[in-house]
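STRUCTURE:
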């Protein structure tokens, strides 16, 4: 009888180990075996098929349903035929609880466990030397971090899987000289007691449960239930006649014991898997069930999934694994045509993304492979997620970005409610107040916020304070006279915080409910939902987030004795929710980017294995972090020295590569960066090996710097480069061919292919002036004249949106000018005022903020010095002096000019003339000659001469005072002479005429380096 028939034959008895490489049909055979037993009359509840993950169980269940319905099998089944081992263990515990009359078991998620662990660790830290757990001094700084809690949970799980309790862990720690394991053992005992206490405190309640169990404890508890209740084990052995286990290489020793306990009573047990794909060694998985003694061994060698080329690569990589496990060699199906394995090296990460994009697009466009049948498999998903999805999408690949692990507290609605609870317990501070008024409760937008800031500051102009402090006062103090919109927002926030504060000592859920109820957000979002469109979708997400928050609050209160509002906020903030892993009914038509572990059990036509870099894949860094979990597992398994420890990790990484290669049906592309400029750009040892196994093994292994991508933008660019090449630079036939292809693309509507849209090929759209002043004066500020004089193009572009409104430099300049405008203030007072407003400025980094603060303090000091030094020759007339008046045109054809501006300081000299002073914060003073030609100063002098400035019409020159250099630098402009006045009139009135255009010259000048429109400037284009 053929091996496969043996498994499907209902008459087969005993234990069968079914071993086979990727795609050899192990799962299909198990499904067929289950269907055959049922068709032969086996009771549905006597067949149990165990899968490694919930996702795999869904897929297998679907396949079995199809097999059963098409074969006329039973339509209704009470017990699930297909389930995960953990789900089966949970069912056993429920059964055991029913038999003893105990409360039902309860599962605790990894994040919940982390929460409990973090609480206990915080307690240990607080208790210091008196703590029950003696954490080594070197670990104490890490105790409060989320990462440490997760590592500790992992270590405890590995121990549970191997039946190591807290006491034994302490003993192992002492014998191995590992104080961290001793402490972890003490912690394990403490954790167990706390979990028992938690359950006991709620046992009287109708919803009381047994102690909450983590995934690792579930299987151990089921084994314990079998041990303490032999009747339960006997009943299960009687019930299950056919036990089928898929992917048994992923089982840890404890799970293997559970399978062993059941299999001793079954008629037939089939344990299927591939020891060469044991990739969860770091989680304790072992292929012992597959490689053990006894029973029949059936080895499958024909892969029904992989093409011959792919199968050769899988076998080649697997052949180098240590040991002699079966199933290393597989044969592909079909012919060599259509299947391939290729390796490509790129000179940079960007080039690697381009290589991948090109391969995926060619497979889609040329070979007709749907996007959903392609995947990119990487070793580190967070690393790939930062670059790949965006690069692929930009090249026109339909790609699904990997979902990120998030915290519920990141959602704005949840954050707002948590902030209300925090404010209710710990009071308001500036940051919380700002979060609340700008969040969904206050709903103040950035523009209104600026208005509110102004209004609050005007309430008490003599006492400038931080905005956050003013906001706290406004929310907690007496009602202020504010514009209606601002007042309403503050009232809302105040009412919600007060509502939560009233029941802050009750059940945390009441406080949360009060805040939610008083916020009015429910009504608002339900109305938004009814409107449809994007607003409704957002409202849906908001409502979902708040519903989830109430769910978390419910769980928290149910499972925490002495639950508090503050504890609830902390619990939500520390939660990290991984995206739900569901098997979609319809696979979206996008390329998947998945980690090698997440790719297990799936398959695609085309697979790209990306990022095979040294240190990344294989990643031989010992697992387990600061608690050395991997070393502990090695000690438990008798592996002692460091050299042997690296070997199992390396083998795990190789098995991961075998598994990744085996996901492909037809084509595999392996990519890596090989760059001399980058230390991280070294291909891993696997790349060399795969090159030997690739179809084009002799191909040139030179890294590609700029791969061609079969994407519209790249193709159009290449064709345009040929068409527009200088004469004789390209063959005319080639040029003609490129032009034909461009014409085809243009006809198909591909952007950029039609020459009608190319830069420089179209006629000027109009020769008409930009403006028609109609004889009215042209309004100009003196600084505008300076800009037009320096570069007319910059002026017109800046005037029409080419400035960055959030430019920090101009904000800083305004702050300094506002401070020095007040002449009554001493240097100490000015510096004090500067420091008070400094934190409101939008700096990106602390170090820059500190540097700038020091520089501005120095500038204030320099200004005060200059002011003191010049009082013998100058007398202040005014600061921030507004100028607004019309200068008549000196000649026909030139427009009158309305001057509008503000002089920093207007002084009177000893001859009674007015001197214009302009204070500069720049670090680069103008030269003496440039100061004489300074249009801004000259225009103010013209305004003085024209009688537009209070205090007389006798210009006494201008001064540029530079504070940005160490010391003070002053540059002077002479007083206007009649000739100079005539010349400057020409300059100013011509500049006014020039504002109408239609041509604006790009004139290179000293300020080009800071020009905000430099990227649009034709004068800055690189010259060939
Ligand atoms: S970069 Fe220089 S020349 Fe170009 S627009 Fe700006 S200021 Fe004018």
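SEQUENCE:
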């Amino acid at each position: 009888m053929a091996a496969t028939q043996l498994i499907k034959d209902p008459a087969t008895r005993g234990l069968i180990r079914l071993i086979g490489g990727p795609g050899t049909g192990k799962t299909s055979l198990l499904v067929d075996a289950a269907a055959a037993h049922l068709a032969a009359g086996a009771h549905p509840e006597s067949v149990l098929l165990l899968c490694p993950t919930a996702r795999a169980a869904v897929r297998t269940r679907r396949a079995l349903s199809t097999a059963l319905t098409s074969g006329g099998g039973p339509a209704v089944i009470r017990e699930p035929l297909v389930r995960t081992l953990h789900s089966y263990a949970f069912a056993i515990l429920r059964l055991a609880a029913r038999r003893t009359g105990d409360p039902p078991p309860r599962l605790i998620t990894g994040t919940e466990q982390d929460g409990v662990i973090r609480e206990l660790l915080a307690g240990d830290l607080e208790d210091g030397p008196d703590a029950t757990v003696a954490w080594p001094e070197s670990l104490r700084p890490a105790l409060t971090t989320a990462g440490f809690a997760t590592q500790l949970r992992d270590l405890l799980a590995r121990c549970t899987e191997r039946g190591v309790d807290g006491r034994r862990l302490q003993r192992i720690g002492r014998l191995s000289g590992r104080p961290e394991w001793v402490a972890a053992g003490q912690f394990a005992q403490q954790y167990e007691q706390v979990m028992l206490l938690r359950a006991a405190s709620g046992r009287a309640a109708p919803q009381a449960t047994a102690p909450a169990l983590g995934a690792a404890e579930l299987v151990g508890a089921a084994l314990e239930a079998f041990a303490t209740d032999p009747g339960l084990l006997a009943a299960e052995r009687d019930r299950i006649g056919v036990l089928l286990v898929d992917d048994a290489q992923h089982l840890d020793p404890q799970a293997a014991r559970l399978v062993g306990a059941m299999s001793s009573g079954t008629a037939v047990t089939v344990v299927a898997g591939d020891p060469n794909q044991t990739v969860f060694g770091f989680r304790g998985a072992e292929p012992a069930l597959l490689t053990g003694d006894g029973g029949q061994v059936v080895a499958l060698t024909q892969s029904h999934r992989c093409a011959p080329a792919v199968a050769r690569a899988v076998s080649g990589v697997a052949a180098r694994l240590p040991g002699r496990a079966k199933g290393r060699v597989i044969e592909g199906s079909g012919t060599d045509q259509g299947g391939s394995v290729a390796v490509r090296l790129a000179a940079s990460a960007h080039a690697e993304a381009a290589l991948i994009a090109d391969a995926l697009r060619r497979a889609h466009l040329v070979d007709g492979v749907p996007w959903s049948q392609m995947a990119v498999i990487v070793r580190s998903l967070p690393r790939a997620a930062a670059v790949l999805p965006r690069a692929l999408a930009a090249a026109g690949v339909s790609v699904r970005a990997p979902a990120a692990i998030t915290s519920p507290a990141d959602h704005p609605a949840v954050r707002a409610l948590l902030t209300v609870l925090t404010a209710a317990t710990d009071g308001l501070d500036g940051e919380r107040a700002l979060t609340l008024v700008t969040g969904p409760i206050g709903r103040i937008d950035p523009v209104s916020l600026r208005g509110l800031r102004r209004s609050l500051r005007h309430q008490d102009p003599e006492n400038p304070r931080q905005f956050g402090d003013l906001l706290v006062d406004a929310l907690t103090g007496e009602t202020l006279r504010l514009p209606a919109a601002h007042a309403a927002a503050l009232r809302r926030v105040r009412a919600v915080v007060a509502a939560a504060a009233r029941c802050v000592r009750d059940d945390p859920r009441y406080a949360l409910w009060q805040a939610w109820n008083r916020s009015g957000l429910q009504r608002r979002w339900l109305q938004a939902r009814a409107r449809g469109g994007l607003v409704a979708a957002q409202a849906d997400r908001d409502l979902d987030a708040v519903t989830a928050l109430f769910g978390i609050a419910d769980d928290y209160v149910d499972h925490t004795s002495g639950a508090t509002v503050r504890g609830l906020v902390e619990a939500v903030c520390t939660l990290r929710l991984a995206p739900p892993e569901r098997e979609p009914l319809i696979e979206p038509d996008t390329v998947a980017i998945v980690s090698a572990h997440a790719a297990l059990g799936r398959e695609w036509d085309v697979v790209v294995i990306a990022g095979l870099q040294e240190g990344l894949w294989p990643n031989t860094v010992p697992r387990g972090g600061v608690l050395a979990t991997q070393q502990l597992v090695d000690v438990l398994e008798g592996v002692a020295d460091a050299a042997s420890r690296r070997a199992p990790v390396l083998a795990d990484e190789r098995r991961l590569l075998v598994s990744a290669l085996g996901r492909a049906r037809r084509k595999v592309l392996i990519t890596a960066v090989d760059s001399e400029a980058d230390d991280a750009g070294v291909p891993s040892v696997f790349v060399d090996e795969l090159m030997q196994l690739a179809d084009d093994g002799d191909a040139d292994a030179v890294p590609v710097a700029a791969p061609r991508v079969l994407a519209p933008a790249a193709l159009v660019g290449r064709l345009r480069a040929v068409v527009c090449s200088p004469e004789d630079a390209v063959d005319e036939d080639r040029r003609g061919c490129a032009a034909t292809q461009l014409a085809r693309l243009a006809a198909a509507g591909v952007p950029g292919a039609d020459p009608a849209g190319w830069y420089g090929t179209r006629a000027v759209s109009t020769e008409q002036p930009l403006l028609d002043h109609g004889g009215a004066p042209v309004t100009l500020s003196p600084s505008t004249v300076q800009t037009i004089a320096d570069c007319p193009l910059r002026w017109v572009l800046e005037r029409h949106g080419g400035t960055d409104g959030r430019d920090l430099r101009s904000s800083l300049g305004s702050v300094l000018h506002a401070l020095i405008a007040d002449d009554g203030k001493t240097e100490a007072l000015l510096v004090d005022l500067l420091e008070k407003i400094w934190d409101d400025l939008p700096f990106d980094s602390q170090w820059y903020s500190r540097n700038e603060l020091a520089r501005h303090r120095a500038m204030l000091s320099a200004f005060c010095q200059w002011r003191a030094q010049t009082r013998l020759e100058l007398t202040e007339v005014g600061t921030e002096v507004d100028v607004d008046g019309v200068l008549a045109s000196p000649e026909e054809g030139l427009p009158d000019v309305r001057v509008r501006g503000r002089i920093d300081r207007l002084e009177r000299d000893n001859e009674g003339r007015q001197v214009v002073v302009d204070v500069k914060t720049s670090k680069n003073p103008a030269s003496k000659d440039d100061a004489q030609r300074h249009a801004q100063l000259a225009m103010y002098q013209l305004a003085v001469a024209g009688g537009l400035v209070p205090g007389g019409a006798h210009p006494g020159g201008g001064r540029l005072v530079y504070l940005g250099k160490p010391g003070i630098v002053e540059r002077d402009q002479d007083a206007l002479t009649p000739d100079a006045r005539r010349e400057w009139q020409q300059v100013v009135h011509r500049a006014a005429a020039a504002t109408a255009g239609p041509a604006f010259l790009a004139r290179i000048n000293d300020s080009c380096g800071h020009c905000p429109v430099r990227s649009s400037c034709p004068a800055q284009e690189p010259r060939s």
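REMARK: The mean pLDDT is 83.
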